[in-house]
Write a structure and sequence with these properties.
Blueprint (H helix, E strand, L loop, with lengths): L1 H49 L4 H26 L4 H18 L1 H16 L7 E4 L2 E8 L3 E5 L5 E5 H4 L5 E4 L1 E10 L5 H14 L10 E7 L4 E10 L3 H18 L20 H4 L1
Antiparallel strand pairs: 1-2, 1-5, 2-3, 3-4, 6-8, 7-8
Length: 278
Amino acid sequence: MHNTLMTWKDTIVDFVIRKGFDILGVIAILVISALVARWLGRQLEGWLTKQKLDLPVRTLIVRVVKLLVFMLAGVLALEKLGVAIAPMVAGIGVAGAGIALAMQGVLGNLVAGLQIIFVKRFRVGEYIEILGETGQVANVELFSTVLVLGDGSKVVIPNKKIIGEILHNYGTTRQLKLSVGVAYDSDMNLVSSTISEILNANSRVLKDPAPSVIINSLGDSSINFSIFAWVVLQDYGPAQQEIYQAIIEKFREKRIEMPFPQHEVRMLNTPAGPANAA
């Protein structure tokens, strides 16, 4: 046991003596490459931002450039240690074929991610509906897409699930579809002009496309109006609340009646009671 430890000690000391400067060189190469990759990534990110490229495209290009820097540094480090590169490259190629077969799902997500990024079926910040999920696109990565739902939760969808599916892209605006009922004896022109006045006064409602008010249906106890207005994504909930509140206040002010559902019941063939019997 003692002889074995001494042998190992001598081997390590001999290796350090012979390869000490090479090891220091490898460490220096790796440290410098990390600093260069970080600096180059920042510079490239700034330049690509000025070119107004989408965030996923910028992220992909920066990552690829950093990876190339690290790969070059790895090759230099191995050569510094005296490792033969050609046989290693051949071995990596053979192993890569096997890994590719074992990772078909991952590669499928990668290919789909590249297609999404460059074809631009949707962009970060847009509101989409796909695979039964509806939300705002928070991030498009190489392997998955992240949606933020209305309740603040996040849904991560593998990119290969997105390709080939029917996609509803709302863009960066959403249409409000509101409704309100008024009594049959109401002045229809007054109702329509009052709602239009409310929409035009609301700062969240976009003027292009212009909002519209139409009679949608004739109910049992009310004439029903449909209200269509467009707002930016973050104003969807607040605008709906503000418009409904303003409608209630204005209708009360102008004495426009909003009837509640009611039914009239008529009793036919009422049997004779004690009083009738007398």
